[in-house]
Design goal:
Layout (H helix, E strand, L loop, with lengths): L2 H13 L6 E6 L3 E6 L7 H5 L6 E5 L2 E5 L4 H11 L15 H13 L3 H19 L8 H15 L1 H13 L3 H12 L1 H9 L3 E3 L3 E3 L9 H20 L2 H45 L2 H17 L2 H15 L6 H21 L3 H15 L4 H11 L1 H19 L25 H28 L20 E4 L4 E5 L6 H4 L5 E7 L3 E3 L4 E6 L5 E6 L4 E6 L11 E3 L6 E2 L4 E5 L1 H6 L6 E5 L7 E4 L4 E2 L4 E6 L1
Antiparallel strand pairs: 1-2, 2-4, 3-4, 5-6, 7-20, 8-9, 8-19, 9-17, 10-16, 11-12, 11-15, 12-13, 13-17, 14-16, 18-20
Length: 619
């Protein structure tokens, strides 16, 4: 391994608080994912300043460091420096129900993505060999290649059992053993025979097939984690090694075939009905939403909870139309936006990031480009959202779907060959063309307004520059005012959404900070977007992760599109409900069009009453 990666690994470990502060670490395609004992010991600014680190994201209790496509090599060096074989007391953090679910789903499904991707590409190669008449469907070569690919999908319950057990901190080998029961050939023979089974002539076992299934094993291992913990707690250590595995197999085998497996199968069948309904009646929706919003989902980790729906749909129906097409269009949009930036920017450092970032984005890895170029510059991200949505809309309308799971880069177009037709392949190519052309055009247009020349001169004036005059922003509520860097959410603190301030609420009502219009009111009422008469665009976000409250404790007095005047009551919220849920009350006031102003000054004080000046925007 190169000295470069060893040095990078040493710097990362030191800056996150040293090896004694690391409880667990693993990696996905682009990120190192740390579970830290005390997140306050990590110096995020210094970590992001390390040469080789693109971005730090703190999400769902994880300290995530975006590295890029060579993350596996960096992780290999980190493993040499970190002792994660012994138990460590982790600092308890309240994540909220939403973040807990996302964290569980991601921890279960992400580790198996490489296997699914590899098997998917084998299926794609097999489809090409058939299309070009290299082999025939009745040949032994076809039979064996299909076996190479189907092995992963057939034994998917075992893979999921292992990764879920690791996530739930129970024995992954025992979990895989329970999953193996469901796939045993003898059970398959009993299901085929169709004769009723009664265990000990008392407990009925429901005849169901579990190969390639998802829901049953997730439910089974979830229950097993509690059974195992109970057995380990009450069985003496001297006989633990013998009796815990034995009782686990007896208990979970009985529960799996009699209750949990059948319940999982029923849920899976309902999911299949839902997927079929979606495909028949609203095929445009998933691809449009994911194609247009995937980068936002990636920023907040939501994509980790949606991607498994595609895997579930494939296990039920044999194809994925929920996640794959939209994500592929989104990635192509981001890659194209980054490519355009590389051509139009005069900033050498931006170009050096945009060129390799765009190449890896075309291959399906967008995070280096997203966090290194598109998000900081904002206009390429806007173009990518629009272009990805347009391409996704076409893919959805034409019922485009893929027949295997794989990475969402250009090579993934091969996954759309199947069902003895090239129709889906042609449609995804058209969707990509729509995405690339629309994204490129929009990025070029926006670049004329947002890019600056090498000397730092402003871009050509826009028609509404007279409207975007200087603006005073009043405090929307009373409380202690802090720099935006003090926000407890990394997305706000890193200024990726814009400049602004943090207010520690003393009062619990949000008042209009100027005369203007309500541009956006979130359904959960925890955030509101406003546009002033002078063109300032601001986001007022109440609390951290308060979206998980689903509107509980919030009351809105305006609606989207309403005209408001300075001092008018917009939203009331219950601070106690937020605190009882384990969330921070920090309220962020963000200037979302910060790039339109030459200077944004925050009032230098520690306390402001509602209506006091807190921000001044200069053109």
């Amino acid at each position: 391994m190169s000295k470069e990666y060893h040095t990078l690994a040493e710097e990362i470990v030191a800056k996150v608080g040293g090896k004694e502060n690391i409880s667990h670490v693993y990696h996905c395609q682009t990120r190192l994912r740390f579970t830290l004992i005390d997140s306050l010991k990590a110096n995020t600014e210094e970590v992001e300043a390390i040469d080789g680190v693109t971005k730090v994201i703190i999400n769902a209790g994880q300290y995530q460091i975006v590295i890029g496509t060579h993350v596996a090599e960096v992780f290999e060096e980190i493993e040499k420096l970190v002792d994660i074989t012994r138990d460590r007391p982790e600092k308890s953090e309240k994540k909220g129900i939403f973040n807990t679910i996302i964290d569980f789903v991601a921890g279960t499904f992400q580790p198996i993505i490489p296997a699914l991707s590899g098997a998917g590409m084998v299926k794609a190669v097999l489809a090409l060999l058939i299309v070009f008449n290299v082999i025939t469907a009745d040949s032994q070569t076809y039979y064996m290649l299909n076996l190479f690919a189907d092995g992963v999908f057939f034994f998917l319950p075992i893979l999921l059992a292992f990764t879920e057990a690791q996530k739930l901190k129970c024995n992954p080998i025992l979990a895989a053993g329970v999953a193996a029961m469901l796939l045993h050939p003898n059970w398959s023979d009993l299901v085929t025979a169709g004769e009723p089974i009664r265990f000990f002539e008392l407990i009925p076992f429901t005849l169901a097939t579990y190969s390639s299934s998802v829901i049953p094993i997730i439910l089974i291992i979830f229950v097993q984690s509690y059974v195992e913990k109970f057995l380990n707690q009450y069985i003496p250590k001297s006989v633990n090694l013998v009796f815990v595995p034995m009782l686990t197999f007896l208990i979970m085998g009985t529960l799996a075939f009699s209750i949990l497996g059948p319940i999982g199968s029923i849920i899976g069948n309902y999911l299949a009905v839902f997927f079929t309904f979606l495909a028949d009646n609203a095929s445009w929706a998933p691809a449009l939403i994911i194609g247009g919003l995937a980068p936002i989902m990636v920023m907040f980790g939501i994509h980790n909870g949606i991607a498994p729906l595609g895997i579930m749909q494939m296990s039920q129906l044999g194809y994925d139309s929920i996640f794959g097409p939209g994500m592929l269009c989104s990635n192509m949009a981001q890659a194209t936006a980054g490519t355009v930036v590389a051509f139009v920017t005069k900033d050498k450092k931006v170009r050096e990031t945009a060129v390799p970032g765009s190449i890896t984005a075309y291959m399906g890895i967008t995070e280096p480009l997203l966090y290194g170029v598109n998000l900081p510059k904002r206009y390429p991200l806007i173009a990518a959202l629009i272009g990805g949505g347009l391409g996704g809309l076409y893919a959805g309308i034409t019922h485009t779907h893929r027949f295997a799971t794989g990475s969402s880069g250009l090579p993934a177009v091969l996954l759309y060959i199947g069902n003895d037709t090239m129709t889906y392949f042609y449609n995804i190519i058209i969707a990509i063309v729509i995405t690339v052309i629309s994204t490129a055009l929009i990025t070029f247009i926006l670049a004329k307004y947002f890019e600056r020349d090498a000397s730092g001169a402003a871009a050509p004036a826009r028609d509404n520059d007279l409207v975007l005059a200087g603006q005073d922003i009043a405090a929307p509520l009373s409380g202690e005012v802090l720099p935006i860097e003090k926000a407890e959410d990394e997305v706000f603190a890193s200024k990726t959404l814009g400049e602004g301030v943090v207010i520690i609420p003393e009062t619990a009502e949000i008042l209009a900070p100027f005369d203007g219009t309500v541009a956006t009111l979130f359904p959960t009422k925890h955030a509101i977007g406003l546009i002033s008469d002078k063109g300032a665009e601001i986001l007022i976000h109440i609390g951290i992760n308060t979206v998980d409250l689903a509107g509980k404790g919030f009351e809105a007095f305006v609606k989207q599109g309403d005209r408001v005047v300075k001092g008018q009551k917009l939203i009331a919220f219950d601070k106690q409900i937020i605190e009882n849920a384990g969330f921070s009350n920090q309220t962020m006031v963000i200037i979302t069009n910060s790039a339109d102003y030459t200077e944004i000054k925050a009032k230098d004080n520690q306390y402001s009453r509602a209506g006091d000046l807190i921000l001044r925007l200069d053109k």
